[in-house]
Amino acid sequence: MAEKGAHLTGTAYIRPSIFEIIAQESLASTLEPAFKKILSFLVSFNFEKYGHILQWTDEGYLIFNIFLQRYYLKRYFASFSETFYGLKRVTIIDSKTGLQKKLSHKQQILSLIIIVTFPYLKNKLVQLSLKYKLQNIDSTSRKAKVPNVAQQYKGICPLCRKPHHIHTVLMVSGYIFCYQCILSEIRIKKKCPVTHYPAKEDDLIRLYIE
């Protein structure tokens, strides 16, 4: 069974080095953040019209990643990041002699599912975990007295003073803002506008609230 599995191999070696594997994984991990930041930048030019797209960035990246990885698997028998470092996936026919052949169509599809689906599901599980933790925090915080500064922003964005549009929580302070409001603020001042704690774009998490 193992002898017919799909493996990574370098162009000069039968198996890739640990450094090549780490390097390609590191590159792969930058694709999603880069895609989302580019999408956010493009949407910011006409936020009122296209702002709703940001609620579906995970699904948008999933579709983009499917087409990207499918192209590279079909043409180079490797994922995008693996191709960048000269790696490719092959089928080992005989592990003793090193006899190998290219991935079959079925193996390409299986590789595509693994490359694309696992990161997407992992991301969704992280979001669900965060949502669950926030709900627990909310339920326990009700027992304690809520500070006046927090009460005055209940149900509204602390920046525009209007009902939230695309709920976004700033992790360093726990306050919820409109996505576009807090994004602009963080990019310019790099701190929470309420608590003045240092903050960056990576500290923003969108909440999917009906």
How would you characterize this protein structure?
The relative contact order is 0.11. By secondary structure, this protein is of the alpha+beta class. It has seven helices and six strands, in the order βααααββααββαβ. The model is unreliable at 1-7 (pLDDT under 50). The chain is elongated, with a radius of gyration of 22 Å. It folds into two domains: 18-92 and 101-143, no CATH class; 149-206, Zinc/RING finger domain, C3HC4 (zinc finger) (Herpes Virus-1, 2-Layer Sandwich). The protein has helices at residues 18-43, 47-50, 57-76, 80-84, 105-141, 148-151, 179-189; strands at 6-10, 87-94, 99-102, 167-170, 176-178, 204-206. It has a three-stranded antiparallel sheet. A three-stranded antiparallel sheet has the order 5-4-6. β4 and β5 (176-178) form a beta hairpin. The N and C termini lie far apart (47 Å). Pathway: Protein modification; protein ubiquitination. It is a multi-pass membrane protein. This is Peroxisome assembly protein 12. Residues 24-147 form the Pex N-terminal domain.
How many separate helices? 7
Poorly predicted parts? 1-7
How much beta, percentage-wise? Answer: 5-15%
Total number of strands = 6
Q: What general outline do the C-alpha atoms trace?
A: elongated
Specify the biggest β-sheet: 3 strands, antiparallel
Q: Tell me the distance between the termini.
A: 47 Å
